[in-house]
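User: Reviewer 2 asked us to show a designed sequence for the structure in our supplementary figure. I'm pasting the structure tokens here. Could you produce the per-position amino acids so we can include them in the response letter?
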């Protein structure tokens, strides 16, 4: 064999890349980085099985990835809902005031977004749906891009991106950015579908509210979180008045219809971050997260009044019903409160509402501590009131109101003897 030429092993100098090759390499590196990001986003979204946490994670991912000031999503409040809603828990836009918007599932815009595979601007949708209320809502929210969250031909939600932020950011989106956000929306649609299927296994078939065991599991987690973060939490127990008489008179099919209608009233009265469940029979339980006593009482009163004013109808039979409720409160800073304690307190307050004549709300108030015996507390006053239609709370008095007149009678309790003595009684005309 002949001698090998040294030039074969000689180290060759790298030739300088031309501009087209450098641009191609840069584009490939950028595409690889985007693919890695999408993989991490998919892993993150698919690992969350709580609906509220999933939506919050989706919003902040979109804000970071797309460099926008905020994001929001219209979503079904439940799997049997006929509306896409935008609530406080689904909204990370920088707004001056909280908003509540809804779009009927039957609206032509919903059908259009379910069939399109690209995002739109407000201007593009305005040209297609001139004068449409949903498009006007998008404009009022200062939306820079509307992204359909769809799985095949089913729309799971509508993602809204706020205004672009950051130096050098173009207010418009290029093709790569639109493809990127559509990929995120596709992952979100699958994740929402998974969470919905899981939630369906935790739902009472008749009322579409949470099952008791699942409700208590979530309540335990929320109570622990509230204790750590020092957030208020309230629990509401609701019972239908004279429900047994309805069942005995009209039959169980009519009674089931009553349960479904009351459940719908309760569900529509609470926020997405709250939770309602069927406790058993004709009893319902509601967790009001990050809600103090006064706000929780307003929610309870809204439910009570809505049931009282609702005409229940089934098989041509109409009837009017009422509910009684009991409210217990977790106060931030207290220790040792368990889920069983909250449920027991709400149940005792519910019993008090039943004992006082039904169709009212009672708030459980714990006994005062020994250090407070010299002060007049809410427990140191007993309240006696006339029957009424509307019950309201004005600390430290409990007041019963009818449309024209208020009668307030205060009975102070002697803390040593336990006897009560009558205080002032007066009428307040409205």
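Assistant: Here is a per-position design you can include in the supplement:
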């Amino acid at each position: 064999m002949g001698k090998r030429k040294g030039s074969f092993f000689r180290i060759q100098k790298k030739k300088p890349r031309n501009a087209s090759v450098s641009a191609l390499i840069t584009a490939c590196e950028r595409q690889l980085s985007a693919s890695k990001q999408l993989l991490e986003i998919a892993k993150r979204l698919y690992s969350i099985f709580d609906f509220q946490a999933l939506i919050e994670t989706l919003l902040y991912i979109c804000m970071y990835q797309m460099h926008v000031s905020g994001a929001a999503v219209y979503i079904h409040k439940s799997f049997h809902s006929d509306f896409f809603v935008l609530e406080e828990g689904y909204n990370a836009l920088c707004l001056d005031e909280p908003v509540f918007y809804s779009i009927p599932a039957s609206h032509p815009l919903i059908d259009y977004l379910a069939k399109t595979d690209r995002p739109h601007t407000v201007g593009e949708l305005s040209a297609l749906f001139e004068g449409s209320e949903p498009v006007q809502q998008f404009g009022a929210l200062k939306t820079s891009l509307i992204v359909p969250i769809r799985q095949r031909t089913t729309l799971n939600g509508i993602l809204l991106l706020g205004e672009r932020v950051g130096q050098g950011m173009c207010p418009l989106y290029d093709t790569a950015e639109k493809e990127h956000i559509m990929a995120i929306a596709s992952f979100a649609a699958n994740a929402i579908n998974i969470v919905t299927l899981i939630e369906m296994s935790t739902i009472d078939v008749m009322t579409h509210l949470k099952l008791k065991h699942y409700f208590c599991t979530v309540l335990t987690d929320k109570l622990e979180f509230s204790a750590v973060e020092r957030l208020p939490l309230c629990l509401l127990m609701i019972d239908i008045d004279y429900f047994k008489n309805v069942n005995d008179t009209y039959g169980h099919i009519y009674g089931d219809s009553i349960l479904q209608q009351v459940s719908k009233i309760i569900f529509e009265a609470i926020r997405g971050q709250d939770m309602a469940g069927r406790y058993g029979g004709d009893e319902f339980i509601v967790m009001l997260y990050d809600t103090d006593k006064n706000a929780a009482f307003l929610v309870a009163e809204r439910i009570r009044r809505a049931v009282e004013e609702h005409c229940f109808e089934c098989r041509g039979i109409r009837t009017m019903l009422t509910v009684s409720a009991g409210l217990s409160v977790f106060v931030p800073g207290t220790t040792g409160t368990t889920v069983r304690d909250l449920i027991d307190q709400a149940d005792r307050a519910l019993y008090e509402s039943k004992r006082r004549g039904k169709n009212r709300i009672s708030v459980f108030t714990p006994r005062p501590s020994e250090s407070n015996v010299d002060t007049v507390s809410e427990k140191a006053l007993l309240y006696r009131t006339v029957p009424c239609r509307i019950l309201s709370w004005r600390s430290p008095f409990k007041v019963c109101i009818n449309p024209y007149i208020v009668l307030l009678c205060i009975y102070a309790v002697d803390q040593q003897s336990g006897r009560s003595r009558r205080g002032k009684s007066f009428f307040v005309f409205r």
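For the response letter, you might also mention the following. Residues 313 and 319 are 7 Å apart (CA to CA). The longest strand covers residues 420-429.
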